[in-house]
Request: fold
Amino acid sequence: MSSIRLPAAPEMGDPLAVTPSQALATALAHRRSSSAASLSAPGPNAEELRDILTLACRAPDHGKLEPWRFIVLSGDAKVRFAEEVRRLASSQADPAKAEGALIKLTAPPLAVVVVSSPKPAKIPEWEQHLSAGAVCTLLLLAAQAFGFGANWITDWYGYAPEVQALLGLEPQESVAGFIYIGSAKEAPLERVRPKVDRLIFAWNS
Ligand SMILES: Cc1cc2nc3c(=O)[nH]c(=O)nc-3n(C[C@H](O)[C@H](O)[C@H](O)COP(=O)(O)O)c2cc1C
Reply:
């Protein structure tokens, strides 16, 4: 059980000071996904998961539409879900590859399906999907803050209509990601990172 505690939720209108944070900068500089297949129990307990999802809900959200929701897969229900998905793997273009990918679904103790759920509104649907992506990113960071490894996976089953039906998605909804969360047996190794200077352009016309 983690010793991390969230501060009391701010009330509407409370001032939220913007202060330098070495801890936050270090956490961002060291953010790294763990291989989903390497994640094992224990995952977050119910209280920790609620806190992690509370942090993810602080994602920027144009129009305050809350255009996303979470489906939690854990315990026996996750096992049953994986069995259904395995049945569907045999009808994919490359059944062996589709089945092989399922280790990422079966190994971690917990999956949070982030559903992008755009609302009828003036805000472009694209921006609502971007907000769902921001939720996924915050979810990875929040899991790391609580000491858990996490990985954002879509794979074939994130797009398969049969899996979307199994999850009970509405026609306008899509899977932004399966966020796998668990204990990372080994520290993930740093990967190649972008050379930021190559990505920065000063507009000067
Ligand atoms: C939308 C999205 C979908 C992804 N889907 C997969 C996937 O299906 N399989 C996979 O191996 N990695 C997938 N990834 C990449 C991993 O989540 C991870 O970002 C990547 O391994 C790089 O590691 P890092 O997060 O530590 O930078 C996806 C990432 C994003 C943003």
About this structure: The first helix runs from residue 22 to 29.
